[in-house]
Amino acid sequence: MPKANNAVASRARRKRILKQAKGFFGRRKNVWTVAKNAVEKAMTYAYRDRKQKKRNFRALWIMRINAGARLHGMSYSQFMGKIKANNIELNRKVLADLAMNHQDAFTAIVNKIK
């Protein structure tokens, strides 16, 4: 009995990988073995960095809140402690936006918790 290779599926699989490698530099975009490794590594980084993006944004929000709080003579930890004590249900994303773009609203929050 002859051996069946299923070239259609193999070609489709290679085509899919090479399509994902579009925009890569040099042989990474058009040589199958190189592209396969490059795409695998890229997918690993993409998976990892979807998680890291959340951490990075939280860190950015904390820095912005800290800068806004220090303009009013408080540290970040003091500010967040007083926010929780006064039952103000604003998350870090919103507080950071207020501190950056709406200083008057942020000042009103600071005056409320002092």
- Look up the CATH topology: c-terminal domain of poly(a) binding protein
- Residue fraction in strands: under 5%
> What Rg is obtained from the alpha carbons, in whole angstroms?
25 Å
- Judged by helices, strands and strand pairing, the structural class is mainly alpha
The number of distinct structural domains comes to 1
- Report on the biggest sheet: none
- Helicity level: over 70%
CATH level-1 class: Mainly Alpha
Q: Which CATH-level-2 architecture? A: Orthogonal Bundle
Write the H/E string, N to C: HHHHH
The CATH homology group name? Ribosomal protein L20, C-terminal domain
The quaternary structure here is single chain
Give the overall silhouette.
Answer: rod-shaped
How many DSSP E strands?
A: 0
What's the end-to-end separation, in Å? 85 Å
Which blocks of ≥5 consecutive residues have pLDDT under 50?
Answer: none
In DSSP terms (H or I, runs of 4 or more residues), the helix count works out at: 5
Indicate the mean pLDDT.
96
